[in-house]
Amino acid sequence: MLRSSSSERGPLWRDPAVRALAVQAVLLLGLLALIAMMVSNTLANLESRGITTGLGFLQERAGFSIPQTLIDYSGDSTYGRTFVVGLLNTLLVSGLGIVAATLIGFAVGIARLSSNWLLARLAAAYVEIFRNIPLLVQILFWYFAVLQALPSPRQSLSLFEAFFLNVRGLIVPAPVAEPGFAATLWALALGVVLVASLALYARRLQARTGRALPVYRLGALILVGLPLATFLATGRPLAWDLPSLAGFNFEGGVTVIPELMALWLALSIYTASFIAEIVRSGIQSVPRGQIEAARAISLPGDITLRKVVIPQAMRVIVPQLTSQYLNLIKNSSLATAIGYPDLVAVFAGTTLNNTGQAIEIVAMTMAVYLLISLAVSALMNLYNARTLLKER
């Protein structure tokens, strides 16, 4: 006689699935209890020291200056304003670093595979030198050994009496928009739309007929020619505020502080050494037969690299490239070593010391870096997905 299914299963405590669920529930409750205890102890310690919690401190007056601001800021601004200033400075150096590191890294990575012996060895030397020196040491080198060794403002290195380089930074002319300059910006926007439309049309034309259009040359002509023609037609609605020496410093123009220059150079050169190896490995992952097939139909070397090798190598390059971009963004926090006013130095440094709101400030700083990293990862993953889809 067959037994019932309930008798075969036996007691619930003998069921492996039930036991596993019970263990996970106990661990979860223990974790929640630990977090609750830590929060309770932290709040009690803060209360005993007279430190209030919350984000109300963001509305208080900061009372300190910041050497580089991309928005209006003064000593009477709030701590919330310092957060925005530090965030923008972090985004600035991170964006500049990503662009420069990508360009240098791709150039060096391709040079490593060059048939020119000298070029390939120089590229290999670049990689082995800069990726094996700690980033902090490189930052200190560019700041103290190079930029701080420049002459004083009175003995500045000048170019065309408009660009000046000295110990206080790089001073360049500042553009001043005049009435009518908006038309040039609209012409530039129209040029971008036209180039995008041209690229889409050229792709469809090549897929239908095999005919290739010179998209790069036509696109460059549109992007440069259309805004330039509009600029000249509107009477050159852009003036330049030239810097001039007044006393012991320069007036006018835009000053790129040495802290930004040193951090940008170090981040770009250091990260580019890793990107170069990523590019080299990605190119070498493309089957040799693809290159030989391109040569068999008489494709020039530059077109073979641009149209055959690089598109296939990108599926190997992009995931690793994403990691390097994230590392560059997080490594920008080393700016505190030379006093660059990024988010960590301004907000998690000076603001934290003045207010004592450690929990809120550190949590906000961590959240910002997390959101920036997730945004970069999402964009790179989207590009990677589109690249893979095109290859199928």
From TrEMBL:
This is Amino acid ABC transporter permease. InterPro entries: AA_ABC_transptr_permease_3TM, ArtM/GltK/GlnP/TcyL/YhdX-like, MetI-like, MetI-like_sf. It is a multi-pass membrane protein. Residues 87-380 form the ABC transmembrane type-1 domain. The chain crosses the membrane at residues 21-39, 83-108, 129-150, 180-202, 214-240, 260-279, 334-352, 358-383. Belongs to the binding-protein-dependent transport system permease family. HisMQ subfamily. NCBIfam families: HEQRo_perm_3TM (TIGR01726). It comes from the Bacteria. It is found in: Cell inner membrane; Cell membrane. PANTHER family: AMINO-ACID ABC TRANSPORTER PERMEASE PROTEIN YHDX-RELATED, MEMBRANE COMPONENT OF AMINO ACID ABC TRANSPORTER. It comes from Halomonas koreensis. Keywords: Amino-acid transport, Cell membrane, Membrane, Transmembrane, Transmembrane helix, Transport.
